[in-house]
């Protein structure tokens, strides 16, 4: 684990580009998995749809990234795109990127898909921003799980399951954002 963390620490240099909003967002959320082609872009797509419908009075900055640079610049996995399309969610405009140092100060929440990604991020995140790093599944406590399993090496059922978890967790996340913005 230490050598992996050392490699990640040296690669998160702040050279990556976050989406730069035209104005300061009212709230911002970054979803993070390992490669940014399966889980985090899927959750980004689900949350975008929900936020557009349920938080439309506010400017919510939404993005996703990976802790590793395996797929930078590539679109989400075709299986993730197909599964999302079946539910009316378009991921075609998303491109993988690596988490950047400035993301920890730019986003109100940095939501990891599993504890390994939390550990990697906590090790490179400035101490004053570590409280922003959380697990996505904290927003779906009834499911009693802490990770969104990586579907990359499995079949299409895994991608459907990621969508199920994303839909459940974004319900709790919408409630959280509303409470932070003072709308509940």
Q: What letter string, H or E per element, gives the SSE order?
A: HEHEHHEHEH
As a percent range, the share of helical residues equals 40-55%
Q: What is the class in the CATH system?
A: Alpha Beta
- Judged by helices, strands and strand pairing, the structural class is alpha/beta
Q: What Rg is obtained from the alpha carbons, in whole angstroms?
A: 15 Å
- Strand order, largest beta sheet: 2-1-3-4
Q: Spans with pLDDT under 50 lasting ≥5 residues? A: 1-21
Quick recap of the structure?
This protein is α/β, with parallel strands linked by helices and 184 residues long.
What features would you describe in this structure?
The chain is built from 6 helices and 4 strands. 41% of the residues lie in helices and 11% in strands. The chain starts with a helix and ends with a helix. The longest helix is centred in the last third of the chain and has 26 residues, at 156-181. It is an alpha/beta fold and 184 residues long. Residues 1-21 have low confidence and may be disordered. A 4-stranded parallel β-sheet has the order 2-1-3-4, sandwiched between helices. α1 packs across α5 (115-124), α2 packs across α6 and α3 (78-86) crosses α6 (156-181). It has helices spanning 2-11, 39-54, 78-86, 103-106, 115-124, 156-181, and strands at residues 27-33, 60-66, 109-112, 133-135. The protein has one domain (2-13, 22-181): Rossmann fold.
């Amino acid at each position: 684990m230490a050598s992996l963390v050392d490699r990640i620490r040296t690669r998160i240099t702040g050279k990556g580009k976050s989406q730069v909003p035209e104005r300061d967002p009212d709230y911002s959320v970054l979803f993070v998995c390992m490669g940014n082609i399966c889980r985090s872009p899927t959750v980004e797509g689900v949350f975008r749809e929900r936020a557009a419908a349920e938080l439309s009075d506010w400017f919510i900055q939404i993005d996703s990234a990976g802790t590793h640079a395996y797929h930078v610049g590539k679109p989400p996995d075709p299986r993730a795109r197909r599964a999302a399309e079946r539910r009316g969610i378009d991921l075609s405009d998303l491109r993988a990127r690596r988490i950047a140092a400035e993301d920890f100060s730019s986003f109100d929440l940095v939501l990891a898909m599993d504890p390994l990604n939390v550990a990697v991020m906590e090790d490179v995140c400035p101490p004053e921003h570590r409280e922003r790093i959380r697990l996505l599944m904290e927003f779906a406590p009834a499911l009693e799980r802490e990770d969104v399993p990586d579907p990359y090496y499995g079949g299409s059922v895994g991608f459907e399951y990621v969508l199920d978890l994303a839909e459940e967790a974004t319900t709790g996340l919408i409630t959280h954002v509303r409470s932070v913005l003072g709308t509940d």
